[in-house]
Amino acid sequence: MRMAQSLIAATLSQQVFKRGVSVVSTPSSSASAFRSRSFSFLLFSQRSRKNPLTASLSFSSQTAMGETPVAADSGMDAVQRRLMFEDECILVDENDRVVGHESKYNCHLMEKIESENLLHRAFSVFLFNSKYELLLQQRSATKVTFPLVWTNTCCSHPLYRESELIEENALGVRNAAQRKLLDELGIPAEDIPVDQFTPLGRMLYKAPSDGKWGEHELDYLLFIVRDVNFHPNPDEVADVKYVNRDQLKELLRKADAGEEGLKLSPWFRLVVDNFLFKWWEHVERGTLGEVADMKTIHKLT
After folding, report:
1. Of 10, 27, 63, 166, which is most buried by a Cβ count within 10 Å?
2. Which amino acids are annotated catalytic?
């Protein structure tokens, strides 16, 4: 009986997987719970065959443990879809106190942001080489929010996990930054030890990306000076380049003039307009500690 159930479950899971839907189920020793889940999968498979366009649209099925998995948008890139539903962001209040967690998907839906005031913790890394040039990245075309815009070295979120929830000296955020620099830019952990990140400040901002998606983040600003090896992940990054201060000013001019279709991310522009050039001087002098202020949360728009 157990072998038959396993074979059925494997077959049904393959059918669902082929249709681009990620389904999370909870193991149960109850045969009736197993049959209930299997029946739901069969119904979905039958509907998908009747209308293939709905195969990867919103699908929910009550599991034995009461969880409701959500299917990804049909047009979303497979890698981004996985991250949207698997990554659990840290929800905070405006004083950066942890109040819960939510999927990356829900945290970036403007409808959710506006109706539930969802605010999540984030970080922005500014990595400089030994020439004090800043490494920029252009986000990939498949990114759900702000595709193909230029931004700072790495921008992402600490996740709701023990290693990235550590509050002391922003260690959880620094652990997350090390993880994402590897994921996005292929920078090995040994090139960027967590104790080499300098948290300089925090800012709170809200920015729509389009009619559906956007950001509402409490963003930790992390600076680091290291010569690194990098191998950008094309699922995350379209292009990279180092810039000095004059070259960055030229990028700003082009973005303001609408030249070459160049766009900058809103969080990067906020940092540039409020902090970056002043802090850059301290990068060159090796005195970043003098301008670090982790007590203030700058509310910027």
Report:
1. 63
2. 155, 217
